Amino acid sequence: DIRMTQSPSTLSASVGDRVTITCRASQSVSIWLAWYQQKPGKAPKVLVSKASNLESGVPSRFSGSGSGTDFTLTISSLQPDDFATYYCQQYHTYLYSFGQGTKLEI
Amino acid sequence: EVQLVESGGGLIQPGGSLRLSCAASGFSVSNNYMSWVRQAPGSGLEWVSILYSSGSTYYIDSVKGRFTISRDNSRNTVYLQMNSLRAGDTAVYYCARSVNGIVDYWGQGTVVTVSS
Question: Which residue of A96, A102, A103, A104 to mutate against B (max B Cβ within 10 Å)?
Fold first, then answer.
């Protein structure tokens, strides 16, 4: 199984800040990586697929990059609605897997 | 409209069994990749099992030999049979549909609590 490790686990930031979340895979997943945003009591929402493809309707302040084992999700200018928990997910192998999550807090 | 509705969760003693159900509408489970994803209290998401349209199934190591994912095409329902339950299986269990590797629909979740 591929293990996904995110850092940091918690990130404190302010509105307007630029923040970056990192995701590392235990083996190469090529570009088969997605990023999700989850708010309390809600199902996760996909933001990015194939490492860098922004999903329809997702604000352009979100961006993803990387390939192989190292990936990043960047939010260029934090908005109040962005404070949530973020997960990376690989879909390179038959059984997919998530990172442990990064909680973005004020 | 696509909907996933889970049921079958509850409080169960360690070593016990439960069967979770996920009733789908708006699409056919037989033609899609269906999964169970769980989230333990205060923890992140964990992909537990996936059932491909081909019928192939995969599980995380911690549930292999104890959990079985299956589907009933006539009922358009996916199941997760959970045996030999442990405290570490306590979580909200979500049914999910994935397309091209991405989850596009989630159920509302069903709570499984394993405790004596």
Answer: A96
What is the 3 state secondary structure string of A53-89? EECCCCCCCEEEEEECCEEEEEECCCCHHHCCEEEEE
B2 interfacial to chain A (CB closer than 8 Å)? no
| Closest residue in chain A to residue B42, using alpha carbons only | A40
pLDDT value at A75 more than 90:
yes
- The average confidence (pLDDT) of chain B is 97
Buried b (16+ CB within 10 A) or exposed e, A36-60: bbbeeeebbbbbbbbbbeebeebee
Calculate what percentage of chain A has a pLDDT beyond 90.
Answer: 93
Chain B contact present for A53, CB below 8 A:
no
First to last CA, chain A: 34
Of A36, A39, A47, nearest in space to A105 by CA: A39
Per-residue model confidence as pLDDT tens for chain B (116 residues) = 999 999 999 999 999 999 999 999 999 999 999 999 999 998 999 999 999 999 999 999 999 999 999 999 999 999 999 999 999 999 999 999 999 999 999 999 999 999 99
